[in-house]
């Protein structure tokens, strides 16, 4: 494996920080404090990003903010990922309709990456930021694996700690089957999910702690696997606090390309949960068709 260049990694860290803080402007000292990058190295990377137009520096305040050249990159990326582009308008509409937050995410290797966010969640624990990454430790990522080949599901399960792997292998196949059958995932709010939200918020505000916080997130995700996280049987009259409803958008090969997440619903009946899930699923299928994707058989 080729070792990534240190400067390239620092540039990625800086751009990810700005992506998680849209509209923000930061001095060299503030970026150094937030990211833990050596001042001289940070200045060198910032200069290169400024020269390329990816960042701009205020002449008096000496702060950096995102530059116009990134618009061209973003536009090119959206043209290459039509599903995300098409989903944005639908997400905005659903966020207003359900008075909560909608998220678009993708799987990149063993991580879930947040690409777009619309609205605000009803549950404080559900806060996420664009650009955040979350290691896809079971049961996280169920929608990305519900339609996967058996060997891919096995590789996903192998990310669990050995202490809980046996238990997960018993009940997670049933939850994946439930997700496939109804076409979307329903997960319940829990104290562990609340701690995940708090940890993700801290990651956004303190990127220099990212490595230990990512490990903590993986531990919390594994703990979810021991709880009743996926709601399989929905009682129409029971009132639930819902962590997420997640529906898949498929690509031309019938693989899950993007996950659309309705994030954080407080005190809703099972009947409304099902209605919201069906509505989200219908939007995901619409985006699949419009982007040239193919629904699995």
Description:
The chain has 297 residues and is of the alpha+beta class. It is built from 11 helices and 8 strands. The strands form 2 sheets. A 6-stranded antiparallel β-sheet has the order 5-4-3-8-7-6, sandwiched between helices. A two-stranded antiparallel ribbon has the order 1-2. A hairpin with a 5-residue loop joins β7 and β8. α5 packs antiparallel against α11 and α9 packs antiparallel against α10. The longest helix is centred in the middle third of the chain and has 21 residues. The mean pLDDT is 86.
For the sheet with most strands, the description reads: 6 strands, antiparallel
- Compute the number of strand runs: 8
What is the mean pLDDT? Answer: 86
> Which segments are poorly predicted (pLDDT under 50) over 5 or more consecutive residues?
none
| Helix and strand sequence | HHHEEHHEEEHHHEHHEEH
Spatial gap, N to C terminus: 37 Å
What shape does the CA trace take?
A: globular
Task: Please write out the topology.
Layout lengths: L5 H15 L7 H8 L3 H13 L3 E3 L6 E3 L2 H12 L1 H17 L2 E8 L2 E8 L14 E3 L6 H4 L4 H8 L4 H21 L2 E4 L2 H15 L4 H15 L14 E12 L5 E14 H21 L7
Antiparallel strand pairs: 1-2, 3-4, 3-8, 4-5, 6-7, 7-8
């Amino acid at each position: 494996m080729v070792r990534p260049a240190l400067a390239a990694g620092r540039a990625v860290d800086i751009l990810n920080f700005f992506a998680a803080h849209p509209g923000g402007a930061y001095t060299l000292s503030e970026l150094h404090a937030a990211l833990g990058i050596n001042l001289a190295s940070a200045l060198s990377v910032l200069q290169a990003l400024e020269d390329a137009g990816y960042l701009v520096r205020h002449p008096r305040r000496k702060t950096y903010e995102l530059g116009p050249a990134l618009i061209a990159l973003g536009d090119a990326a959206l043209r290459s990922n039509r599903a995300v582009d098409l989903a944005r308008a639908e997400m905005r509409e659903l966020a207003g309709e359900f008075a909560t937050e909608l998220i678009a995410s993708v799987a990149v290797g063993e991580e879930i990456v947040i690409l777009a966010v619309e609205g605000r969640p009803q549950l404080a624990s559900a806060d996420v930021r664009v650009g955040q990454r979350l290691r896809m430790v079971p049961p996280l990522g169920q929608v990305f694996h519900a339609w996967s080949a058996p060997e891919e599901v096995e590789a996903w399960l192998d990310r669990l700690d050995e202490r809980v792997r046996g238990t997960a292998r018993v009940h997670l196949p049933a939850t994946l089957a439930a997700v496939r059958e109804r076409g979307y995932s329903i997960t319940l709010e829990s104290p562990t999910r609340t701690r995940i939200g708090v940890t993700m918020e801290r990651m956004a505000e303190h990127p220099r702690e990212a490595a230990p916080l990512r490990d903590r997130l993986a531990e919390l995700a594994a703990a979810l696997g021991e709880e009743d996280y996926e709601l399989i049987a929905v009682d129409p009259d029971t009132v639930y606090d819902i962590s997420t409803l997640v529906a898949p958008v498929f690509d031309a090969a019938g693989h899950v390309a993007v996950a659309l997440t309705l994030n954080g619903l407080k005190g809703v009946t099972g009947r409304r949960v099902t209605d919201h899930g069906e509505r989200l699923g219908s939007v995901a299928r619409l985006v699949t068709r419009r982007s040239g994707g193919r629904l699995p058989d």
